[in-house]
Amino acid sequence: MAEPVQELAEKLRLGIRERAADDHGERAGLQLVRMAIEMTCPAGVLPSEEAVLGLYGPEPVHEGEALAKAIIETVERLTRRTKNPTADE
């Protein structure tokens, strides 16, 4: 009876390790997107990583939400500027 328990415990440990590796990959990808936004988008459209934790939460999906909103805000600003080139942003 102990053998199935040990097998299950090992599967759980492997699953946790795989999830941690997946999480690391997700965060690395999000960090690349953050870097691109910070380099190309207007200042102020993307909150700091610390602010994202407080505003949205700690999961990768929360960082993704903040990144998506920053991209949308940038596109909206550019669209407004194109429609009204004399407007101050």
SSE blueprint and pairings:
Blueprint: H1 2-40, H2 49-55, H3 60-83
Oligomer: single chain
Low-confidence stretches: none
Task: Average the pLDDT over all residues and give the rounded result.
Answer: 84
What pattern of helices and strands is seen along the backbone? Answer: HHH
Q: Which percent band covers the strand fraction?
A: under 5%
Strand segment tally: 0
Number of helices in the DSSP assignment: 3
Terminal residue distance: 69 Å
Global outline: rod-shaped
Output the structural class. Answer: mainly alpha
Percentage of residues assigned to helices: over 70%
**Rounded to an integer, what's the Rg over CA atoms?**
20 Å
Largest sheet: none
Q: How would you describe this protein?
A:
It is a single chain. By secondary structure, the protein is an all-alpha fold. The chain is built from three helices and no strands. It has helices at 2-40, 49-55, 60-83. Helix 1 (2-40) runs parallel beside helix 3 (60-83). The longest helix is centred in the N-terminal third of the chain and has 39 residues, at 2-40. The protein is rod-shaped. The model has no long low-confidence stretch (mean pLDDT 84).
